[in-house]
């Protein structure tokens, strides 16, 4: 059954979807069978003052784990932290793991179509299944490398988007520990002179049953908001229900959920 869905932000139609909801297994098999898109290199130099440079970090739902790939229709570029080069944005985005779609590609289109920016450069860093501790310790080198490559390219982020929490919602981390680790992670960017707003989503949903530690993680995400570190509250992605997620895992986003995720983030970006 096809289900048409439309999203509005401030009265502006930002997108529609009409298609089958793929299962996670179908997504993985289908994406693996499809070759990655040809990469079109673009200059990283931004001549317009109306350019958004958005770092997207977190775990799988901030990466390339959506069931449908998308190629940007607007002036949306993908900064690849590995090579330090920019490419026309096409899923799967370079820099994050996963072989499917990313909400960030759609987000770039939304922001430009809404007239907020002339160009959007997305910097993906997300790592599937990573706890906040892993992102801040074993995988902290991803942040260090991104900082180095961004500086070499002359790019200073205008926004940080952080969507993570599903793995920690299955752990025993406390709200206080979560907030402390998040502050440590943000300070890595602040120490590099990157002072742009850091938006933190409230994200824990992954599976039909509510994870055992949901309340603590959501409390930690709320308490981590901090004026001194310019950490701001982002969207509550747990509001994306099972209709927006793959039927097999009730976790990763289908096409409807990926667009909804982008729309939720767009509402917070100024």
Number of strands: 10
Model regions low in confidence, pLDDT < 50 over at least 5 residues: 1-29
End-to-end C-alpha gap: 37 Å
- Helical residues, percent: 25-40%
Order of helices and strands: EEHEEEEHEHHEHEHEH
Instruction: Name the CATH class.
Output: Alpha Beta
In order across it, which strands form the biggest sheet? 3-6-5-7-4-8-9-10
How would you characterize this protein structure?
The radius of gyration is 17 Å and the shape is globular. It has 270 residues and is α/β, with parallel strands linked by helices. It has a single domain (3-266), classed as Rossmann fold. It is 29% helix and 21% strand. Helix 2 crosses helix 7 (255-266) and helix 5 (175-191) crosses helix 6 (214-223). Helix 6 (214-223) links the parallel strand 9 (198-202) and strand 10. The strands form 2 sheets. The protein has an 8-stranded mixed beta sheet with strand order 3-6-5-7-4-8-9-10. The chain starts with a strand and ends with a helix. The chain has helices spanning 24-33, 103-113, 132-136, 140-152, 175-191, 214-223, 255-266, and strands at residues 3-9, 12-19, 41-42, 51-58, 76-80, 85-88, 119-124, 159-163, 198-202, 231-236.
SSE order and pairing:
Elements: E1 3-9, E2 12-19, H1 24-33, E3 41-42, E4 51-58, E5 76-80, E6 85-88, H2 103-113, E7 119-124, H3 132-136, H4 140-152, E8 159-163, H5 175-191, E9 198-202, H6 214-223, E10 231-236, H7 255-266
Parallel strand pairs: 4-7, 4-8, 5-7, 8-9, 9-10
Antiparallel strand pairs: 1-2, 3-6, 5-6
Helix pairs in contact: 2-7, 5-6
């Amino acid at each position: 059954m096809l289900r048409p869905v439309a999203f509005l932000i401030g009265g502006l139609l930002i997108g529609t979807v009409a298609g089958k909801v793929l299962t996670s297994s179908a997504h993985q098999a289908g994406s693996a069978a499809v070759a990655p898109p040809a990469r079109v290199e673009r200059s990283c130099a931004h001549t317009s003052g109306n350019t958004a440079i958005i770092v997207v970090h977190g775990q799988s739902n901030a990466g390339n784990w959506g069931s449908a790939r998308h190629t940007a229709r607007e002036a949306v570029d993908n900064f690849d932290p590995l090579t330090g080069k920019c490419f026309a944005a096409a899923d799967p985005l370079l820099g994050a793991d996963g072989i499917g779609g990313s909400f960030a590609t759609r987000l770039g289109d939304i922001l430009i179509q809404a007239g907020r920016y002339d160009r959007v450069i997305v910097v993906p860093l997300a790592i599937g299944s990573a706890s906040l501790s892993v992102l801040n310790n074993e995988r902290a080198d991803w942040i260090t490398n991104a900082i180095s490559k961004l500086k070499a390219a002359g790019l200073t982020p205008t926004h940080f988007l952080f969507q993570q929490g599903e793995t920690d919602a299955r752990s025993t981390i406390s709200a206080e520990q979560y907030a402390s680790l998040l502050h440590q992670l943000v300070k890595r960017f602040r120490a590099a002179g990157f002072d742009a707003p850091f938006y933190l989503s409230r994200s824990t949903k992954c599976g039909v049953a509510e994870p055992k530690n949901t309340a603590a993680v959501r409390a930690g995400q709320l308490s981590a908001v901090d004026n001194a570190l310019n950490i701001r509250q982002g969207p509550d992605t747990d509001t994306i229900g099972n209709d927006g997620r793959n039927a097999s895992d009730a976790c990763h986003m289908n096409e409807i959920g990926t667009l909804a995720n982008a729309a939720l983030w767009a509402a917070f970006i100024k």
